[in-house]
Queue: 2 jobs
Job 1
Amino acid sequence: MRILVTYAVQGEFTELKFPGLTGEEEVQVGYLRTGIGKVKSAFYLTEAINRAQPDLVVNMGTAGTVRHQVGDIFVCRHFIDRDMQKLTDFDMECEINSAELLARKGYCLHWQGEGICNTGDTFLTELSDVKGDVVDMEAYAQAWVCRTKNTPFIAVKYVTDIIGQNSVKHWEDKLADARKGLGEFFEALGGAG
């Protein structure tokens, strides 16, 4: 079992322990720093999938929110591209749900804390009408790449900031908490898929 863990910036990195998604197989974990934003993220992930052929891609990282609390963790299988959302009248796709492929493979079935991740190429600092539980700048692009490569994808996001409340400063201050919280989340998963 080969798992590729993606993260945007070095400050989000933490080494994760996967005791085995089904409790049986050996797990090999690789890491990919994608950089910030949809374009870089999609490019580097595509190259990594072509090279490593992972069985699963797990995006871990930080996110902002409008309606939840700092420290909350969301497991995302549903992704929205807020940049393309404005173009739905032109029949542009702006939502991806990765749950079906994950379920078909039997991966990540017991991962709790369901949420919707809203992705865009801007760091939101002011309240706006945002659909979803958390906002980031990479997950939708990675979900899209994984869907085109028929590779299961899931994102786990730690809330570091409340949009509209000095978000950039709060994000920087909460990176260490996010690394610790994400590490504990994955350790608590145990051995079942």
Job 2
Amino acid sequence: MLRFRAQLGLLGLLVLCASPALWSCNTSIDTSAFDAAVKADNDSIAKYKVVDDTIIQGYLKRHSYTAADYQRTASGLYLVTLTNGTGAQVVAGKQISVKYTGKYVSKAVENKVFDTSDNAPSKSFDYTVGATSLIQGWVEGVSLMRQGDRKLLLIPSYLAYGTRGYGPIPRNTPILFDMQIVTVSP
């Protein structure tokens, strides 16, 4: 029994001495596949920033909009003002009511509607700003509007549904929303 305890003690001492070496053997995780995927995604976004901007510029030209008619944000979102509102500014936490029609920007399908608030029972989309998950282009565009505004939001794919697409919207597709802010809660 004494011999067994001595062996057990020796084994314990061996494990204790070897532990630092075992812990340091393989503490790094190979992230090369993840890193490659992130790089590919970033390269795709860079490519589509150029492609989408060309498509959106084509839409603006086909419809005779000049630089005086639209605003381009730093993110690449375009806003064309159709009607200037005079009501309250849209801000986070406010309940708003929006009428919209979503269409494609590309010349081949630009008149095709993929979504509209006309399908809603109230004929509008009502939500609390900042509390609802929406595409980046919608969020940014609405934040630049006020009650009574009607604008075209021309949204590049990377601010919309990106490389995955959604429902009837194919991946890497710039889209347009003809949007009117009907009400902004006080």
